[in-house]
Specification:
It is a single chain. The chain is mainly α. The chain folds into two domains: about 40 residues, no CATH class; about 170 residues, MetI-like (MetI-like fold), CATH 1.10.3720.10. Helix content is about 70%, strand content about 0%. The chain is built from twelve helices and no strands. The longest helix is centred in the middle third of the chain and has 32 residues. The chain starts with about 25 loop residues before the first helix and ends with a helix.
């Protein structure tokens, strides 16, 4: 007959059921779990693929006048970017118009954004609606309307001035939207705290409000410059006999785009990338401090 040793430690029966073996997860399950990341990477690849092609073909040695097929690796386009006749002149014109239009749009857009976000006045709702009109209006309609306006005024001839006026008109809307969103996200307690410490309205604005809104102003200015430099349709209506860089690219595509166009595109993308990365680094350092 078996005996039971009462002095030995007895293990209490577990109340939890035994663990079942973990089921094997296949490829379909992994795709479901990472579907959003896969779609995001696919969208990024789709957007950056043309930029990658432009970068690669900037080192191409064209066979004849065309740059549509790969020939061989060459640094000639990077060493001589102004070889095509008229390209650097059109690039300089686009840069000048872009800078002036960006400054004008940034100043006007910031003032309008503060007026819409901080003040109540008659016609505020209508002004908000009018701000979105240039963004929603087709560029062909906008360009033809501006051409009619400038021709009827007969005061300013078609050229850089009319192009700049047109660019400021449609860039202001994007600056207003960007800066207004930044103002709406500000914490009003920061300004209240400054005024509690006996700061007047002017000091509070320049010491507290403006530094907080400045990232939105810079973002709107960069967006305005990109839109101005890239615009073709409105510029084509209001340029007269002047040729900007997008118009030069369109004209050269009829007979073969020079390699230097890809060089300019790659350089502009690199400069924009430096600005974006630099802004992110500065923002993170401020958050750490």
């Amino acid at each position: 007959m078996a005996t039971i040793d009462l002095t030995a430690p007895q293990q209490a029966p577990s109340s939890h059921p035994p663990l079942l073996p973990r089921p094997k997860r296949g490829l379909i399950y992994w795709v479901r779990e990472h579907l959003i990341q896969i779609l995001g990477l696919g969208a990024l690849f789709y957007m950056f693929l043309p930029i990658f092609v432009v970068f690669v073909f900037s080192f191409n040695s064209p066979n004849g006048r065309t740059n549509y097929t790969w020939s061989k690796f060459s640094l000639n386009a990077w060493l001589h970017p102004c070889d095509p006749a008229g390209m650097c002149d059109s690039l300089a014109l686009s840069m000048k118009i872009g800078v002036v239009a960006t400054i004008g749009a940034a100043v006007l857009g910031t003032l309008i954004a503060f007026a819409l976000a901080r003040h109540r006045f008659r016609g505020r709702a209508a002004t908000n609606l009018l701000i979105f009109m240039p963004m929603a209006t087709p560029e062909v309609v906008m360009g033809s309307s501006l051409l009619t306006l400038f021709l009827n005024l007969t005061v300013i001839p078609l050229g850089p001035v009319t192009i700049t006026i047109a660019h400021v008109m449609f860039c202001v809307s994007y600056v207003v939207v960007t800066v207004k969103a930044r103002i709406a996200g500000l914490d009003p307690r920061l300004e209240q705290a400054a005024m509690d410490l006996y700061a007047d309205e002017s000091t509070t604005f320049w010491k507290i409000t403006f530094p907080l809104v400045l990232p939105g102003i810079v973002a709107g200015a960069l967006l305005a410059f990109s839109l101005s430099f890239d615009d073709l349709i409105v510029t084509n209506f209001t340029s007269g006999s002047y040729v900007t860089f997008p118009m030069y690219v369109l004209g050269s595509s009829q007979r073969g785009t020079p390699v230097q166009v890809n060089v300019v595109g790659t350089a502009m993308f690199g400069i924009a990338l430096v600005f974006v990365i630099g802004g992110q680094i500065i923002r993170r350092r401020r958050m750490v401090v």
